[in-house]
Amino acid sequence: MSYYPYAERFPVNRRMPESGRSPEEIAAELRGIADEENGYWEGGQVSGSMYCGDHEHYAFLTDVFGMFAHENALQRDIVPSATRFEGEIIAMTLDMLHGEAVTDSEPCGLITSGGTGSIMHAMLAYRELARQTKGDRRFNVIKPETAHPAFSKSCHLFDIDVRIAPVDPETTQVDVAAVADLIDDDTIAIIGSACNYGYGTVDPMPELSALAVERGVGLHVDGCLGGFILPWGQELGYDIPLFDFRLPGVTSISADTHKYGYALKGSSVVLFRSKELRNSQYFFMPEWTGGKYCSPSVDGSRSVGLMAATWASMVKNGRGGYMNYAREIFSTADKMKAAIASHPELRIMGNPTFCFSFTSDELDIYLVNDSMKTKGWRFNGQQYPDSIHMAVTRPQTQPGVAERFTDDLAEAVQYAKDHAGQAAESGAVYGSVPGGFTSEAEEFINMIMADMMDHHMALPD
Q1: Sheet hosting strand 268-272, strand order edge to edge
Q2: What pLDDT does 436 receive?
Q3: Looking at the predicted structure, is the pLDDT value of residue 450 above 60?
């Protein structure tokens, strides 16, 4: 890893160039880089990351994006298309997640820049509504230890206490009784994942819903990963518990359109059971000299291009398209999980869906990862316990990929046996370099963290 990737082939811009370069030269340079980087995942051996993998679909979305990329969603008087795109994206997502089941209020939503953005807006909404109804004091939310770090990040930013509920090590689902014990008068919401990133398991949502109703707290369902595929899995007959607005305790849901919605990166939806909850996090400043200011979300300016591309992806795929892709993904995941189960040395964590994690009580699982890495596989290493995570996406549904996984895994298990006691190169870092956490990567990450702590990322001469 380097601060200057491609420096051996292209100049590093440490300063603003004195004169510009031609569009043709720039495009050629970037096309070469893009083609090279696409090669990392096109073979279907990368966990998650590229959820669609269809270059024709990407080209279509890029074309749509270009039509509206320059337009600002703040200026609805001259770009009414933004209102159409945003409203219909939210309506289609509510339809998928059974917003029609809400009869006591009017469900609604926001479009955000990603999963973290959706989670942040939900946490902000819960805090602001609590301040309006309970007074300005310090509140808390309760999340499973498997819930995404974005919840802790959001609570850090919004001055909310986080209480961590343990999960059952066998099921990898949150302990509902432990959640109940953590609730007090200052609890504004509890969290459940559908599914959690680490293990691909769905928390016991019906039980969490009943608890939320009983104790009068909100329930946010984190469907950032599973929100756009689990509904189709339910319709296909997979054993997936209810997790959406059909449960009376569910008060908000996050679902990433830029994952299994197959939109461009930087797009997510957060849904609310009521306008009261959503509207509580609106920001108003009517006395500003520049005019009365109102912002429905943390972001101010937003490109209409991303809204248009997201809308286009959803309309292009439709229920039938999403169902077909889900069928292929779940089927491929089943084949890969069967390959893992065929090795008594390996153990799948919990009862996962399209996303799964496996560990070993007999082998160093990171040695398995080391071997798979040499064969072109990129998994995410995890910890507590050490395990390997795989999120199946459309590139894995290509012919022969599941079979290649089966063959390579068998060799990797044997490799781990043959090298027992040897230190593995891999480790557990979310979004790390291919194959896991190497000593070189550790040094690189430590440098980046040091720079971040110093509040600068300046390029040296």
Answers
A1: 108-112, 268-272, 252-255, 218-223, 187-193, 140-144, 161-165
A2: 44
A3: no
